[in-house]
Amino acid sequence: MHVTRVRQYFLDTIVELTGIKAGVGVTVPKAVSLLKKRTESNVTPWWSGDPLDVIRLEGGEVESGLVLLLHRVGAISEPLDSIGLLIRFVRAHLHRLGKVEDEPDFRLPTGYLAVQDLSALLNGMSEEPTEHVRGLTLLPEWQDIKRAFAIRNVMDRLPTSKSWNGIVQLDDLFESEAAPADPETYFDQRFIDYLNAQGEDLNRIHWRQFEYLVAEYYKRLGYRIKIGPGRGDDGVDIILEKDRVFAGPEVILIQCKRYSGTNEVKINEVKALWADVNVRAAASGLIATTTRLARNSREYCDARHHRLKRAERENIVQMLREMADVMSSPSGGAR
Protein backbone atom coordinates (compact mmCIF):
# COMPACT_ATOMS: atom_id res chain seq x y z
CA MET A 1 0.00 0.00 0.00
CA HIS A 2 1.25 3.46 -0.90
CA VAL A 3 0.84 6.60 1.21
CA THR A 4 1.13 10.10 -0.23
CA ARG A 5 2.24 12.82 2.20
CA VAL A 6 4.78 15.61 2.49
CA ARG A 7 8.27 14.29 3.27
CA GLN A 8 8.12 15.91 6.73
CA TYR A 9 5.27 13.56 7.70
CA PHE A 10 7.36 10.47 7.04
CA LEU A 11 10.39 11.95 8.79
CA ASP A 12 8.30 12.81 11.85
CA THR A 13 6.95 9.25 11.83
CA ILE A 14 10.31 7.48 11.93
CA VAL A 15 11.70 9.95 14.49
CA GLU A 16 8.70 9.33 16.76
CA LEU A 17 9.02 5.57 16.34
CA THR A 18 12.73 5.71 17.15
CA GLY A 19 11.85 7.41 20.43
CA ILE A 20 9.20 4.79 21.22
CA LYS A 21 11.18 1.73 20.18
CA ALA A 22 14.74 2.68 21.13
CA GLY A 23 14.09 5.30 23.80
CA VAL A 24 16.29 7.82 21.96
CA GLY A 25 14.95 11.24 21.05
CA VAL A 26 16.49 12.75 17.93
CA THR A 27 15.58 15.90 16.07
CA VAL A 28 14.53 15.60 12.45
CA PRO A 29 17.67 17.42 11.19
CA LYS A 30 19.87 15.05 13.22
CA ALA A 31 17.94 12.05 11.92
CA VAL A 32 18.42 13.18 8.33
CA SER A 33 22.16 13.72 8.87
CA LEU A 34 22.48 10.22 10.35
CA LEU A 35 20.53 8.68 7.49
CA LYS A 36 22.67 10.47 4.92
CA LYS A 37 25.98 9.23 6.36
CA ARG A 38 25.89 6.03 4.37
CA THR A 39 23.01 4.80 2.28
CA GLU A 40 22.56 1.10 1.74
CA SER A 41 22.53 0.30 -1.97
CA ASN A 42 19.10 -1.35 -1.78
CA VAL A 43 17.42 1.51 0.10
CA THR A 44 15.77 4.49 -1.62
CA PRO A 45 16.98 7.66 0.19
CA TRP A 46 13.52 9.21 0.36
CA TRP A 47 14.57 11.41 3.33
CA SER A 48 16.72 13.62 1.07
CA GLY A 49 15.02 16.72 -0.28
CA ASP A 50 12.70 19.54 0.72
CA PRO A 51 10.63 18.49 3.78
CA LEU A 52 7.55 20.08 2.19
CA ASP A 53 7.78 18.11 -1.04
CA VAL A 54 4.91 15.65 -1.55
CA ILE A 55 6.19 12.09 -1.97
CA ARG A 56 4.56 8.67 -2.34
CA LEU A 57 6.01 5.78 -0.34
CA GLU A 58 5.23 2.14 0.26
CA GLY A 59 5.12 0.88 3.82
CA GLY A 60 8.34 -1.03 3.20
CA GLU A 61 10.13 2.17 2.22
CA VAL A 62 9.06 3.88 5.45
CA GLU A 63 10.24 0.82 7.37
CA SER A 64 13.60 0.93 5.59
CA GLY A 65 14.10 4.49 6.84
CA LEU A 66 13.11 3.50 10.38
CA VAL A 67 15.40 0.46 10.38
CA LEU A 68 18.33 2.49 9.10
CA LEU A 69 17.78 5.17 11.76
CA LEU A 70 17.54 2.54 14.51
CA HIS A 71 20.82 1.14 13.27
CA ARG A 72 22.43 4.58 13.20
CA VAL A 73 21.50 5.31 16.83
CA GLY A 74 22.89 1.94 17.90
CA ALA A 75 19.61 0.21 18.77
CA ILE A 76 20.02 -2.70 16.32
CA SER A 77 23.14 -4.37 15.01
CA GLU A 78 22.38 -4.28 11.29
CA PRO A 79 19.94 -2.44 8.99
CA LEU A 80 18.04 -5.57 7.96
CA ASP A 81 14.31 -4.99 7.45
CA SER A 82 11.59 -7.21 8.89
CA ILE A 83 11.02 -9.27 5.74
CA GLY A 84 14.75 -9.74 5.27
CA LEU A 85 14.86 -10.98 8.86
CA LEU A 86 12.17 -13.59 8.15
CA ILE A 87 13.76 -14.66 4.87
CA ARG A 88 17.04 -15.37 6.63
CA PHE A 89 15.27 -17.25 9.41
CA VAL A 90 13.27 -19.40 7.00
CA ARG A 91 16.25 -20.01 4.73
CA ALA A 92 18.18 -21.40 7.71
CA HIS A 93 15.34 -23.83 8.45
CA LEU A 94 14.01 -24.82 5.03
CA HIS A 95 14.80 -28.43 5.83
CA ARG A 96 12.18 -28.33 8.60
CA LEU A 97 9.42 -27.43 6.13
CA GLY A 98 9.46 -30.70 4.22
CA LYS A 99 11.10 -31.90 1.05
CA VAL A 100 12.83 -28.98 -0.68
CA GLU A 101 15.35 -30.74 -2.93
CA ASP A 102 13.29 -29.74 -5.96
CA GLU A 103 13.11 -26.10 -4.86
CA PRO A 104 16.68 -24.80 -4.90
CA ASP A 105 15.41 -21.28 -5.58
CA PHE A 106 14.15 -19.71 -2.34
CA ARG A 107 11.44 -17.83 -4.22
CA LEU A 108 9.62 -21.09 -4.92
CA PRO A 109 6.63 -22.07 -2.76
CA THR A 110 8.12 -23.69 0.35
CA GLY A 111 10.17 -20.73 1.57
CA TYR A 112 8.03 -17.99 0.06
CA LEU A 113 4.83 -19.21 1.69
CA ALA A 114 6.58 -19.67 5.03
CA VAL A 115 7.69 -16.02 5.03
CA GLN A 116 4.15 -14.94 4.13
CA ASP A 117 2.65 -17.03 6.94
CA LEU A 118 5.14 -15.81 9.56
CA SER A 119 4.69 -12.18 8.50
CA ALA A 120 0.90 -12.50 8.80
CA LEU A 121 1.30 -14.03 12.26
CA LEU A 122 3.66 -11.32 13.51
CA ASN A 123 1.53 -8.53 12.03
CA GLY A 124 -1.55 -9.83 13.85
CA MET A 125 -3.33 -10.86 10.65
CA SER A 126 -3.61 -14.43 11.93
CA GLU A 127 -3.97 -15.60 15.52
CA GLU A 128 -2.29 -18.98 15.22
CA PRO A 129 0.57 -20.22 13.03
CA THR A 130 -0.37 -22.32 10.05
CA GLU A 131 0.58 -25.98 10.05
CA HIS A 132 3.19 -25.07 7.44
CA VAL A 133 5.23 -22.95 9.89
CA ARG A 134 4.12 -24.21 13.31
CA GLY A 135 7.39 -26.06 13.79
CA LEU A 136 9.39 -22.88 13.17
CA THR A 137 7.51 -21.02 15.91
CA LEU A 138 8.52 -23.71 18.40
CA LEU A 139 12.24 -23.15 17.83
CA PRO A 140 14.16 -21.43 20.68
CA GLU A 141 15.23 -18.52 18.45
CA TRP A 142 11.64 -17.68 17.51
CA GLN A 143 11.29 -15.37 20.52
CA ASP A 144 14.36 -13.43 19.34
CA ILE A 145 12.83 -13.21 15.87
CA LYS A 146 9.61 -11.80 17.35
CA ARG A 147 11.48 -9.07 19.26
CA ALA A 148 13.67 -8.19 16.28
CA PHE A 149 10.60 -8.05 14.01
CA ALA A 150 8.68 -5.82 16.43
CA ILE A 151 11.35 -3.15 16.71
CA ARG A 152 11.49 -2.91 12.90
CA ASN A 153 7.74 -2.95 12.31
CA VAL A 154 6.29 0.51 11.63
CA MET A 155 2.82 -0.73 12.60
CA ASP A 156 3.97 -1.80 16.07
CA ARG A 157 4.10 1.29 18.28
CA LEU A 158 4.88 -0.41 21.58
CA PRO A 159 8.24 0.16 23.32
CA THR A 160 10.71 -2.59 22.47
CA SER A 161 13.74 -1.46 24.48
CA LYS A 162 14.67 -4.08 27.09
CA SER A 163 14.45 -1.52 29.90
CA TRP A 164 12.32 1.26 28.46
CA ASN A 165 12.07 4.06 30.98
CA GLY A 166 11.28 7.07 28.86
CA ILE A 167 13.22 8.85 26.16
CA VAL A 168 16.70 10.31 26.46
CA GLN A 169 17.36 13.27 24.19
CA LEU A 170 20.39 12.73 22.01
CA ASP A 171 21.21 16.44 22.18
CA ASP A 172 21.89 16.04 25.93
CA LEU A 173 24.92 13.92 25.09
CA PHE A 174 26.50 16.94 23.41
CA GLU A 175 25.02 19.88 25.30
CA SER A 176 24.25 18.87 28.89
CA GLU A 177 26.46 18.11 31.87
CA ALA A 178 23.63 16.54 33.85
CA ALA A 179 24.01 12.95 35.03
CA PRO A 180 21.21 10.38 34.49
CA ALA A 181 18.30 10.52 36.91
CA ASP A 182 19.04 6.94 38.00
CA PRO A 183 21.48 7.23 40.94
CA GLU A 184 22.95 3.82 40.08
CA THR A 185 23.97 4.95 36.60
CA TYR A 186 26.58 7.45 35.47
CA PHE A 187 26.08 7.16 31.72
CA ASP A 188 22.89 6.04 29.98
CA GLN A 189 23.05 2.73 28.11
CA ARG A 190 21.39 4.31 25.08
CA PHE A 191 24.21 6.85 24.81
CA ILE A 192 26.70 3.99 25.00
CA ASP A 193 24.95 2.20 22.16
CA TYR A 194 24.82 5.39 20.10
CA LEU A 195 28.54 6.10 20.48
CA ASN A 196 29.33 2.47 19.74
CA ALA A 197 27.54 2.97 16.42
CA GLN A 198 28.73 6.53 15.76
CA GLY A 199 32.27 6.55 17.12
CA GLU A 200 33.18 9.66 15.17
CA ASP A 201 30.94 11.66 17.53
CA LEU A 202 33.00 10.66 20.57
CA ASN A 203 35.13 13.80 20.55
CA ARG A 204 32.03 16.00 20.22
CA ILE A 205 30.26 14.92 23.40
CA HIS A 206 30.12 17.28 26.37
CA TRP A 207 33.29 17.07 28.44
CA ARG A 208 31.25 16.21 31.54
CA GLN A 209 29.53 13.36 29.69
CA PHE A 210 32.95 11.96 28.84
CA GLU A 211 33.76 11.86 32.55
CA TYR A 212 30.48 10.03 33.20
CA LEU A 213 31.27 7.56 30.41
CA VAL A 214 34.62 6.65 31.95
CA ALA A 215 33.05 6.44 35.42
CA GLU A 216 30.33 4.10 34.11
CA TYR A 217 32.91 1.73 32.65
CA TYR A 218 34.78 1.37 35.93
CA LYS A 219 31.59 1.15 37.97
CA ARG A 220 30.74 -1.95 35.94
CA LEU A 221 34.13 -3.37 36.86
CA GLY A 222 33.20 -3.17 40.52
CA TYR A 223 34.84 0.09 41.59
CA ARG A 224 33.26 2.62 43.90
CA ILE A 225 33.13 5.97 42.13
CA LYS A 226 33.69 9.52 43.31
CA ILE A 227 33.29 12.16 40.62
CA GLY A 228 34.75 15.60 41.17
CA PRO A 229 32.84 18.86 40.75
CA GLY A 230 34.04 19.18 37.16
CA ARG A 231 35.56 22.59 37.74
CA GLY A 232 38.25 23.44 40.24
CA ASP A 233 38.96 19.76 40.89
CA ASP A 234 42.75 20.19 40.97
CA GLY A 235 43.24 17.95 37.95
CA VAL A 236 41.50 14.81 39.25
CA ASP A 237 38.10 14.12 37.71
CA ILE A 238 37.31 10.65 39.07
CA ILE A 239 38.50 8.67 42.08
CA LEU A 240 38.09 4.89 41.97
CA GLU A 241 38.17 2.67 45.03
CA LYS A 242 38.03 -1.10 45.38
CA ASP A 243 38.62 -3.20 48.48
CA ARG A 244 41.58 -5.58 48.51
CA VAL A 245 41.95 -8.72 50.60
CA PHE A 246 45.37 -8.12 52.14
CA ALA A 247 45.64 -4.35 52.00
CA GLY A 248 43.62 -1.19 52.24
CA PRO A 249 41.39 -0.04 49.39
CA GLU A 250 42.94 0.33 45.97
CA VAL A 251 42.69 3.99 44.93
CA ILE A 252 43.01 5.09 41.30
CA LEU A 253 42.94 8.72 40.16
CA ILE A 254 41.59 9.53 36.70
CA GLN A 255 42.03 12.67 34.64
CA CYS A 256 39.69 12.94 31.62
CA LYS A 257 40.52 15.00 28.54
CA ARG A 258 37.70 15.33 26.03
CA TYR A 259 39.58 16.80 23.10
CA SER A 260 38.62 17.16 19.45
CA GLY A 261 40.45 17.07 16.17
CA THR A 262 44.19 16.62 16.40
CA ASN A 263 44.57 18.03 19.92
CA GLU A 264 46.86 15.87 22.05
CA VAL A 265 47.37 15.52 25.79
CA LYS A 266 50.47 17.51 26.65
CA ILE A 267 53.30 16.39 28.92
CA ASN A 268 52.52 18.96 31.63
CA GLU A 269 49.02 17.48 32.04
CA VAL A 270 50.45 14.00 32.47
CA LYS A 271 53.04 15.24 34.97
CA ALA A 272 50.31 16.97 36.98
CA LEU A 273 48.40 13.70 37.31
CA TRP A 274 51.58 11.85 38.29
CA ALA A 275 52.18 14.42 41.03
CA ASP A 276 48.64 13.87 42.35
CA VAL A 277 49.17 10.10 42.39
CA ASN A 278 52.23 10.50 44.57
CA VAL A 279 50.88 13.23 46.84
CA ARG A 280 47.71 11.23 47.55
CA ALA A 281 49.59 7.92 47.77
CA ALA A 282 47.23 6.41 45.21
CA ALA A 283 47.83 2.97 43.74
CA SER A 284 47.88 4.42 40.23
CA GLY A 285 46.64 7.11 37.89
CA LEU A 286 44.92 6.97 34.52
CA ILE A 287 44.70 9.67 31.89
CA ALA A 288 41.76 9.11 29.53
CA THR A 289 41.24 11.05 26.33
CA THR A 290 39.06 11.07 23.23
CA THR A 291 42.14 11.73 21.09
CA ARG A 292 45.68 10.68 21.94
CA LEU A 293 48.68 11.57 24.05
CA ALA A 294 51.57 13.48 22.56
CA ARG A 295 54.60 11.29 21.95
CA ASN A 296 56.55 12.53 24.97
CA SER A 297 53.41 12.20 27.13
CA ARG A 298 53.04 8.58 26.06
CA GLU A 299 56.69 7.88 26.78
CA TYR A 300 56.35 9.48 30.22
CA CYS A 301 53.40 7.20 31.04
CA ASP A 302 55.06 4.08 29.68
CA ALA A 303 58.17 4.69 31.78
CA ARG A 304 55.90 4.57 34.86
CA HIS A 305 53.39 2.06 33.50
CA HIS A 306 52.93 0.21 36.81
CA ARG A 307 51.35 3.31 38.34
CA LEU A 308 50.54 5.59 35.41
CA LYS A 309 48.19 4.28 32.72
CA ARG A 310 46.75 5.80 29.56
CA ALA A 311 43.46 5.26 27.75
CA GLU A 312 43.52 6.85 24.32
CA ARG A 313 40.80 6.96 21.69
CA GLU A 314 41.13 3.32 20.63
CA ASN A 315 40.88 2.26 24.28
CA ILE A 316 37.74 4.33 24.81
CA VAL A 317 36.21 2.81 21.67
CA GLN A 318 36.95 -0.64 23.10
CA MET A 319 35.25 0.35 26.38
CA LEU A 320 32.15 1.30 24.41
CA ARG A 321 32.23 -1.97 22.52
CA GLU A 322 32.42 -3.94 25.77
CA MET A 323 29.49 -2.04 27.31
CA ALA A 324 27.25 -1.92 24.23
CA ASP A 325 23.93 -3.73 24.46
CA VAL A 326 22.70 -3.64 20.87
CA MET A 327 19.77 -5.81 19.81
CA SER A 328 21.34 -8.29 17.43
CA SER A 329 19.57 -9.70 14.40
CA PRO A 330 18.94 -13.43 14.93
CA SER A 331 20.75 -15.46 12.34
CA GLY A 332 18.14 -18.16 12.29
CA GLY A 333 20.34 -20.70 13.96
CA ALA A 334 22.44 -23.51 12.61
CA ARG A 335 20.84 -26.41 10.84
Give a brief rundown of this model.
It comes from Caulifigura coniformis. The protein is built from 13 helices and eleven strands.
Over all CA atoms, what is the radius of gyration? 25 Å
Report strand %. Answer: 5-15%
The top level CATH class name of the largest domain: Alpha Beta
Strand order of the largest sheet: 5-6-7-9-11
N-to-C span: 35 Å
How many E strands? 11
For the record, the CATH architecture of the largest domain stands as 3-Layer(aba) Sandwich
Q: What would you call the structural class?
A: alpha/beta
Give the fraction of residues assigned to helices: 40-55%
Q: What would the principal axes of the Cα set say about the shape?
A: elongated
Enter the CATH topology name of the largest domain: Trna Endonuclease, Chain: A, domain 1
Structure description:
α1 (7-22) packs across α3, α4 (82-92) runs antiparallel to α7 and α9 (189-197) crosses α13. A hairpin with a 7-residue loop joins β6 and β7 (250-257). The strands form four sheets. A five-stranded mixed β-sheet has the order 5-6-7-9-11, with helices on both faces. It has three domains: 2-72, no CATH class; 82-152, no CATH class; 174-322, 3-Layer(aba) Sandwich (Trna Endonuclease, Chain: A, domain 1). It is an alpha/beta fold. The radius of gyration is 25 Å and the shape is elongated. The protein is built from 13 helices and eleven strands. The chain has helices spanning 7-22, 28-37, 59-72, 82-92, 109-122, 134-137, 142-152, 170-175, 189-197, 207-220, 267-279, 295-303, 313-323; strands at 2-6, 24-25, 54-58, 168-169, 224-227, 238-242, 250-257, 264-265, 284-289, 292-293, 308-311.
